[in-house]
Design brief:
Layout: E1 2-5, E2 8-14, H1 17-20, E3 35-36, E4 51-52, H2 60-63, E5 72-73, E6 78-79, E7 89-94, E8 105-110, E9 124-131, H3 133-137, E10 141-142, E11 147-154, E12 166-183, E13 191-199, E14 202-208, E15 219-225, E16 232-239, E17 245-252, E18 258-264, E19 274-278, E20 287-298, E21 308-317, H4 321-352
Parallel strand pairs: 2-16
Antiparallel strand pairs: 1-2, 3-21, 4-5, 6-9, 7-8, 8-21, 9-20, 10-20, 11-17, 11-21, 12-13, 12-14, 12-20, 14-15, 15-16, 17-18, 18-19
């Protein structure tokens, strides 16, 4: 099965659970293990949360156009990426029933004009909401530090989904691995060089619409991206009666493997929620860069994407001393800057008086 997603032909490989498990190794990491890095992520409890769109959006993946300045949230925790634009509609809303205990608000995400601004491609395109992890931490995280990301995602009732069978939503991480590339070297032949190559493992939510003549009733399923060949692997069925809150998580271990987890509900992930472990694209991750969400729709200028709601996306690190030290230094610098600004304001007020 293939889908065209942001110009990329995506093959979904159907594997029985016992086949998928062959990719696993000992020592996988349950997402949510270790120290919660509160300096990134969000709980969306601030009802003044907003997003500065800075249109038109970027579309470097499709047409090599990076349109600066890119969009960002008013709390500096979320950004538009350079490759694709951000969702068109993001709003803090009351937490849907069954959400995390104590959660009063979560973030609704929808998009309309995905793809290249001003151009309707009439195929499936996607927009990204990216955690501003690298900028806020001032660093990337080594795989040896054992990072993970966890998010709660609300799948709405079936009659609220975009009427389209295919991928609708993604929860993903950005990783990087060292690869060797050859370039022409003239008289001496080709030359080899090594560089960090980014890639984007993830968990995708696909919908089957009962309006599709091949489908008897609405349902969904999860795929993971991806196996050693970069193909999406179908992992878990979600019947319509199980729509509602789900918990997704991904982790990276020192061997560079990516581990995927999912469960119905909002409880913390456990070893029983393990889907699979993979080396996507045959890469061995050396860095964890950030995590992000994808909203997909048919880019026809009139069809809104499915209204997903996210809550409490969090970053965890097992070996957290380097990250914690960096965060502490950044917070101290920010406190000094705030103190200096306040002192200047007070001085200016006295002078005017």
């Amino acid at each position: 099965m293939k889908y065209s997603l942001a110009g990329l032909a995506v093959t979904v490989v159907f594997l029985a659970p016992q086949c998928a498990l062959r990719a696993e190794t000992a020592g996988d990491l349950v997402p949510g293990t270790g120290t919660w890095i509160e300096y990134v992520g969000d709980d969306f409890e601030d009802t003044s949360w907003g997003f500065i769109h800075n249109l038109p959006k970027s579309s470097r993946e499709q047409d090599q156009r990076l349109r600066s300045p890119t969009g960002r949230s008013t709390n500096d925790r979320w950004i538009e990426g350079p490759e694709r634009g951000h969702p068109d509609h993001m709003k803090v809303v009351p937490t849907p029933p069954g959400g995390l205990p104590g959660s009063k608000h979560a973030l609704l995400i929808r998009t309309l004009n995905s793809g290249i601004p001003g151009y309707n491609s009439y195929d499936v395109q996607q927009d990204d909401l990216i955690s501003n992890t690298i900028s806020r931490l001032g660093m990337t995280i080594s795989a040896s530090d054992m990072p993970s990301a966890v998010a709660r995602v609300y799948l709405p009732p079936a009659d609220e989904w975009e009427d389209r069978s295919g991928p609708h939503f993604g929860f993903r991480i950005s990783a990087a691995a060292t690869v060797t590339k050859s370039t022409p070297g003239g008289f001496f032949g080709s030359r080899s060089s090594t560089e960090l190559e980014p890639y984007w493992p993830g968990i995708w939510v696909h919908f089957r619409s009962k309006t599709d003549r091949r489908v008897e009733e609405d349902s969904a399923f999860l795929t993971i991206r991806g196996n050693r060949n970069g193909q999406d692997v179908r992992m878990k069925e979600i019947p319509a009666e199980d729509f509602g809150w789900w918990t997704f998580g991904m982790s990276v271990t020192p061997n560079g493997m990516v581990h995927y987890y999912a469960k119905k509900g909002v409880e913390e992930l456990t070893a029983a929620d393990h889907l699979t472990s993979q080396f996507p694209y045959s890469f061995s991750a050396q860095q964890f860069r950030t995590f992000f969400f994808n909203a997909c729709n048919k880019n026809d200028g009139k069809t809104w994407s499915t209204p997903f709601v996210i809550d409490d996306p969090k970053l965890y690190v097992v070996n957290s001393s380097r990250v914690a030290a960096n965060v502490q230094r950044k917070m101290e610098r920010e406190a000094r800057r705030d103190a200096q600004r306040n002192a200047k304001k007070q001085s200016s007020g006295k002078n005017r008086g």
